[in-house]
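quick q for whoever's on today - can somebody do inverse folding on this one?? i tried earlier but teh output was garbage lol. tokens:
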């Protein structure tokens, strides 16, 4: 195979990639460095013609790529892994600028994608065989065609490669749409891929809010894989209905943690805090509600408050544990939760009752002590570093309280009595349930949500099937038995 070669990477120039070639545009937009509020580099806004051209190129490439043996596809994906790793320091620096993440968190993302590569390189497509006296029944999985990947801003590298890798492994071609808030690293990931793959196999088109509907409505795209908000996920599902596209939707969560009375308070408190405030709370499976048994509620909350006070917030180069909210839109949403909480007189256990306004979008981690069940901070997902705690006494009641949400992405149960914790966990209505750990998705396990947290799943062995059609050949044996 003859990949399309790109010139030496220029880390301050950005283009869409269509049919293996960089493509600019008449209209431009810029991301914002959330630690400083300063505008970053120009990025072209793709239009309908760009999308149409990308689909044509992807369909053409699919005819050949889908017939490449899976071991050869793995070989090329492995080369992309090595190529990406060779540029990981530059990727980390770029990620810090577009997301504001502290360097250690950015490195966790850039280094962590190796696990996604390695996991998928150890997989193969399953084939099932059943036989009776008349026939052999085979179940095989074949690629869908052109995949459209609509990616979020909180983990732009992991969550774009988390779609690119399984799509390519299963024989699909893919067109990636990065978030307009964080286009830069995703554009560079796809630029690097041009050194490995033939034109049209991996493409990227970035732009504004008009671009997503162009992908979801396009009849030449067979599947949309989307990670983002529940509200946008519903719009995408509706937009895909006229063409009966396959959809995978990984949407928002309102994850509950239930803490049993037998836990080690000093060891558990920092873990609960990290689950809530990891990446400044900008994680779909971050802990959003914490239910602590009444016998240990005061002591646990005290320890959580003390640990939270040690969490430094600042810019990537400051050595801080937590960075800013990634964009102004989300910063304003998080600020509204503070305003609502203060207006209703709920108790701030730690953190100021107002968000300081400055050049960067910084929010101090904040715990709200026992707000009512109908409060916004309990009912809705802030997607920022603010979390409520409530006491509980009755196991049946707290399970109902935890399940009282339209979302069902993740959940946690904490307790020395692991059997009890697992029993409770089995009753929580969530796609991923963690016992004695905060929410830590892994590429080895399928990831998806219940209820309004999404449809379908990705990653794990089962996740490959999300990028496939099922084909069942029936091989009749009857004729061979006729004498």
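ok took a stab at it. sequence:
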């Amino acid at each position: 195979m003859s990949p399309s070669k790109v010139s030496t990477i220029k880390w301050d120039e950005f283009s869409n990639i269509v049919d293996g070639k960089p493509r600019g545009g008449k209209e431009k937009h810029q991301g914002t460095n959330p630690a400083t509020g300063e505008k970053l580099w120009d990025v072209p806004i793709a239009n309908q013609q760009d999308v149409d051209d990308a689909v044509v190129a992807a369909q053409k490439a699919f005819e050949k790529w889908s017939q490449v043996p899976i071991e050869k596809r793995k070989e090329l994906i492995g080369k992309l892994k090595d190529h990406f790793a060779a540029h990981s320091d530059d990727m980390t620096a770029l990620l810090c600028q577009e997301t504001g993440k502290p360097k250690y968190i950015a490195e966790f993302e850039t280094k962590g994608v190796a696990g996604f590569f390695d996991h998928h390189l150890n997989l193969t497509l399953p084939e099932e065989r059943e036989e009776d006296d008349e026939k052999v029944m085979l179940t095989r999985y074949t690629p869908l065609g052109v995949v459209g990947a609509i990616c979020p801003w909180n983990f732009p590298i992991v969550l774009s490669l988390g779609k690119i890798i399984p799509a390519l492994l299963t024989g699909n071609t893919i067109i990636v749409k990065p978030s307009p808030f964080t286009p830069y690293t995703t554009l560079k990931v796809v630029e690097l891929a041009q050194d490995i793959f033939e034109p049209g196999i991996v493409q990227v088109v970035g732009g504004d809010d008009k671009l997503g509907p162009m992908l979801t409505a396009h009849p030449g795209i067979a599947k949309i894989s989307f990670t983002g908000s529940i509200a946008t996920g519903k719009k995408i599902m509706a937009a895909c209905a006229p063409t009966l596209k396959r959809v995978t939707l990984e949407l928002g969560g309102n994850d509950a943690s239930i803490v049993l009375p037998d836990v080690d308070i000093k060891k558990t408190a920092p873990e609960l805090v990290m689950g809530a405030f990891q990446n400044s709370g900008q994680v779909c499976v971050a802990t959003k509600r914490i239910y602590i048994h009444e016998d240990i509620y005061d002591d646990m909350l005290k320890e959580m408050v003390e640990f939270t006070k040690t969490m430094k917030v600042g810019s990537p180069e400051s050595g801080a544990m937590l960075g800013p909210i990634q964009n102004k839109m989300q910063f304003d949403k998080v600020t509204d939760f503070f305003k609502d909480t203060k207006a209703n007189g709920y108790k701030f256990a730690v953190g100021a009752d107002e968000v300081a306004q400055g050049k960067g979008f910084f929010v101090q981690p904040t715990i709200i002590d026992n707000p009512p069940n109908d409060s916004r901070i309990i009912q809705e997902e802030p997607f920022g570093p603010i979390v409520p705690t409530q006491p509980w006494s009755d196991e049946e009641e707290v399970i109902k309280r935890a399940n009282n949400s339209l979302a069902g992405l993740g959940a946690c149960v904490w307790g020395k009595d692991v059997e009890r914790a697992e029993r409770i966990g089995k009753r929580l209505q969530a796609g991923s349930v963690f016992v004695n750990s905060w929410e830590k998705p892994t590429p080895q396990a399928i990831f998806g949500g219940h209820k309004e947290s999404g449809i379908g799943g990705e990653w794990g062995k089962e996740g490959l099937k999300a990028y496939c059609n099922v084909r069942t050949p029936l091989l009749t044996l009857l004729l061979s038995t006729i004498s």
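fwiw Residues 103-121 form the longest helix (19 residues). also DSSP finds 15 helices and 23 strands in the chain. so keep that in mind when u check it
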